[in-house]
Amino acid sequence: MNKKIENTILLLLVSYSIYVASIVGMGWDELTHYKNGKNILNYILSFGNLEYRTLGLPFHFGFYDALSHFIALNFISKYHVFAHHITNLFFSIFAIFGISQLTRFLFNKELSKIIFIFSFINPIFFGHMAVNPKDTIITFAYIWISLLIFKYLKFQHIDSKRKRYTYLISIILALGLSIRLTFIGTLIPIFLIFAIEIFFIKNNKINYKKFFYDLFFVFLISYTITIIFWPEMHSNFFTPYEIIKEYFIQFDKGYYGLYWGLLNGELFNIAQTPKSYLFINIFYKMPEFFILSIPLLIICFFIDFKYFKFEFINFVKNFTYYLLFIFIPVLLIILLSIKVSVGLRYFLFIIPFLSIFPGLFFYYLYKRRFLLINKITFFIMCCFLILYAINFFKITPYQYTYINSFNGKFSNNVKKFENDYWGLSIKELIKKFENNYEIDINKQYNFAFCGINNDIATYYLDKIDKLSYTKVHNNENYDFIIMTNLNNGNRLTKPINVKSCYEDFLGTDLYSVKRLGLKLSILRENNN
């Protein structure tokens, strides 16, 4: 591909992602993490002289929150949200750049460019790039630690590179741990690959004395950074066992997020998350061309596997490594019965690796285009890709709500999955209310909420100068209720009583945010 064309594509992709970051609303957790970062940074910069004001987040550590807040301080308050979005976006784009570099390291430069584009336009990953201050950072850390360990294996004999990789791995490991302690579990594939390279492949001559020294350095630096930005642990610096134990107990029991989930129309309690959860979400939420590429690539392997072995050095080994990055976490998720809901956000770190399937398939079709069947298939797949791209832009800036046509008409998915579970469309919804509703400046309105973070809604309501309102619970008398289609049950609610917000609260829909006919959020007036 011409370098000028490549740079143009890159510029367009990055520019579009910045545009989306500037217009999209805040996600469910964003305000909480802004406050957390501010509190932690103020506490640390005071060297403990200021009392740390906890937000009740003992398991959300502060390294990334503090870093994001520090960057936002360089912007005027009006642009603080945009500053946080740009920070998230920066790490997300570099996560994609990392998967491209890893592909280049294991395969070749041409395939790495295809993987970059397919990862960038993946609806699930793109939809989280600017607004997710957790799972995108996990993805960044997962990919870059994997890449750096490969480079460490190759260049350990060069001290300058060895030290640089060790330092970078330490910082990035601390970054991943600052999101979730369970991040360490996601690194099992690279630990296994490291062992395979050392004990079975034996292509890399490792100096074990230097390796164990570097390993100790990585542990020391990453642990120290994690504890420094984890104020709840400061009184237990050397004995953190109890709080870490409690963290994993809560993680195992699923005491986080929602209590009820929706999987292709089937209600489930997240304590009994179906083992098919991940597969069903991938099948219906990845683009059509993406899903079709997987079986078609397998067919290509059966028919013309010699081509792949000839085209790529050590293809079998490196493709196996890619599969390990994907399937070991999936296997652990199934075996450990991890409790999850709201789509693929907890599995975001494997999404870029999945791009190897359509990437290899398109690469093969293009390289072997002299065959008529490949020309026809390539044309058909490009048609699917173009149709997907059209829908990708039509649902801007809510790409993470994408559901493919294998599940029927897009607008009919309102009862099948939690669609706008981040509540990103609340900003647009409240803007519609501000621009179109005749607000009585002498009246005090009562607003209730369902399926959204109340603080996010009030953040945008407070921006309406002439609006005087009170927040009320949705079981009280309210004038308006703002909601998404999330389920409203708690841990003790019986399944028969669990309903989506749309079903549970009656009234007249004044305004809604739609994409391709699917209602992402609704502002409903109480007629009683």
Please give a structural write-up.
- There is one protein chain.
- With 528 residues, the protein is an alpha/beta fold.
- It has helices at residues 3-23, 30-45, 63-72, 80-106, 109-120, 123-128, 135-155, 159-177, 183-186, 188-201, 208-228, 241-253, 277-285, 288-311, 315-335, 351-354, 356-367, 372-394, 426-436, 454-461, 501-504; strands spanning 260-263, 266-269, 445-450, 469-471, 480-483, 508-515, 518-525.
- α5 (109-120) packs across α17 (356-367).
- The model has no long low-confidence stretch (mean pLDDT 90).
Q: What keywords describe this structure?
A:
five-stranded mixed β-sheet; alpha/beta; globular; single chain; about 525 residues
What's the short story on this structure?
Helix content is 57%, strand content 7%.
Beta content comes to: 5-15%
Low-confidence stretches: none
Biggest pleated-sheet summary: 5 strands, mixed
Q: What is the chain-wise order of helices and strands?
A: HHHHHHHHHHHHEEHHHHHHHEHEEHEE
Question: What is the topology?
Answer:
Layout: H1 3-23, H2 30-45, H3 63-72, H4 80-106, H5 109-120, H6 123-128, H7 135-155, H8 159-177, H9 183-186, H10 188-201, H11 208-228, H12 241-253, E1 260-263, E2 266-269, H13 277-285, H14 288-311, H15 315-335, H16 351-354, H17 356-367, H18 372-394, H19 426-436, E3 445-450, H20 454-461, E4 469-471, E5 480-483, H21 501-504, E6 508-515, E7 518-525
Parallel strand pairs: 3-4, 3-5
Antiparallel strand pairs: 1-2, 5-7, 6-7
Helix pairs in contact: 1-4, 2-3, 3-4, 4-5, 4-7, 5-17, 7-8, 8-11, 10-15, 14-17, 19-20
